[in-house]
Amino acid sequence: MLSIKNLQAKIGEKQILNGINLEVKPGEVHAIMGPNGSGKSTLASVLAGREEFEVTGGTADFLGKDLLEMAPEDRAREGVFLAFQYPVEIPGVSTINFMKTAVNQIREYRGQQPLDAVSFLGVMKEKMKLVEIDQSLLNRSLNEGFSGGEKKRNEIFQMAMLEPKLAILDETDSGLDIDALKIVANGVNKLRNKSNAVVVVTHYQRLLDYIVPDFVHVLYKGKIVKSGTKDLALELEAKGYDWIKDEVTVA
Amino acid sequence: MSKDNQVLEELTSKEYEHGWTTNIETDSAPKGLNEDIIRFISSKKNEPAWLLEWRLDAYRKWTKMKEPTWPNVTYPAINYQDVIYYSAPKQKVSPTNLEEVDPELIKTFEKLGISLTEQKRLTGIAVDAVIDSVSVATTFKETLGELGIIFCSFSEAVQKHPDLIKKYMGSVVPVNDNYFAALNSAVFTDGSFCYIPKGVRCPMELSTYFRINAANTGQFERTLIVADEGSYVSYLEGCTAPMRDENQLHAAVVEIYAMKDAQVKYSTVQNWYPGDKEGKGGIYNFVTKRGLCFGDNSKISWTQVETGSAITWKYPSCVLKGDNSSGEFYSVAVTNNYQQADTGTKMIHIGRNTKSRIVSKGISAGHSQNSYRGQVHIMKRAEGARNFSQCDSLLMGDKCGAHTFPYIDVENSTAKIEHEATTSKIGEDQIFYCLQRGIDEESAVALIVNGYAKEVLNQLPMEFAVEAQKLLALTLEGSVG
User: Fold this and answer.
1) B419/chain A closest Cα distance in angstroms
2) How many structural domains compose chain A?
3) Which residue in A85, A110, B157, B233 has its CB near the most CB atoms, within 10 A?
4) ipTM of the complex in this document
5) Looking at the partner chain, which of A51, A75, A101 has a beta carbon nearest the beta carbon of B447?
């Protein structure tokens, strides 16, 4: 589904990604872990098409298309979803209105008729149940005055609405207490199926107790330095990141 | 150049959609302004002697006044002798019903989306259509007449209701109120008049649609609304003009007089030609709008969406004379390219327990300058007066400016005044968030701007709100830097 080869990127003069290789197949969950500043969020941003990062080398193929050539909105329309670490506030625009605009623009891109208000509400109600979110939250201005947990739940609700093929969760666990974490993870698990894939970017192992990965990759200095199964995450939790750093230095 | 800036360039160069002219024969005065021109206008309109005197008095006062220099706008000096002060579509006789109106004129308004044919209208809005300086048609007159509501052109009111005109014209905006009001008082050619009798709730929106058509013509219209005790009316005003290289002058006066328990809601969507993207041409819009809450418990509410004009100088105000009276001002002012707007309101609290509310949302893009200027004055007698003001500015790109000039004068210590102000920029973060959800940049900006202006747009009557939303999106789509 997603095939990243030797991906390099910089911001300003600072090189951050130094040749990432990653293969994600449908139905898989990949966790990207690593110490602060290792390039985890940069990878997520580059895949989503954030402009301030400049790709300096490598390729990323998404379902047979050159992902890096696509405009950010087209990546979304092709099925790439990024759950933001810091969801943005848009005053005066309700989540419902926001999602209606998004859903219908994506449908238009795919050559489908827009959803009328009734069908849209039907879909929305169903997804609300799935991710355990209250409609009163969705009537409010997008993310304005939301708690950390509400913001993250709202991200997962949007993911449910847009049904992406590839979902990238950028530090979705940050700022969440354990109950909120469970609800968010539960939502993500319900949305998983054989044909979609999830990339979880996280600093801590904690989230991976609830969203269980098939593969764990450790990012350090802009490179994947170690890959393994979920046991690798537990090892990192127990030993910290220093031993990886040592290993890399020795090698 | 970043992609955002490219989109900005593309979209802000979008052409003004109402920029066409109609070929109608007009009857015009020669260029220039002097007492003879005023006599010419007055005689063309077959006015009573007192009105000519009133005009001449205004003219004499105007010649002694100076054009204000305090607004935060710059423009080359206006040569008032180079303007045509009277231009009227030529009609053989003044029309008494729609069949007699020149079909070209009807077409003009249909092109603007304003049907003057009553049976075709479903929305139930009575329209007075003013082209250049003259009212060409008023719809639904009879329906309104049954309720005793007078809604007609100003000229017609001068002929048919001289007592009302004589009594109320100039009672809210005196002839020498300011430079542009004095000019208007001297040379105004037409406009709309509306009287709502005691206890009557006007069953439909009343609307005036202004269109400047002829070249080098100034449009000087007057609107006078008188709401008698316990009455209610909602009034709409829309405006467009063709694209011209030269600047055109527009100096209007709107007066609202509200008696005891009366309520008047006045909404404007101003879309005069703003000039091209280099700042050439466009309307100079110098407008005096004021409402007098004369009676106790009366209420006047201004809502404006200002998107057009090269220069906007406009402060719809309320004088709260009656006890418990209240005034509201809701404004969205958008400037793009080289537009300049200096707009805001004045709330003068004279009566006891008077209330006012100001919500101003400025949006600047391109190289434009957008200023809010507001005054809240609590007079000595205004025991228990309250004001709430909120002035927000939104910047798009880094070449525009937003300015706020709030003045607060309090002479009574029981007054409660709240003022909030914010300045924000449409963030790249907000845009990217939308893009990542599959929303293109144009729609993202429209979404964000409409969200920002929502509180004001919500005040507009339904049909107008939709039009205003589209207009905002059209003026600004993609203007992000």
Assistant:
1) 19
2) 1
3) B233
4) 0.96
5) A101
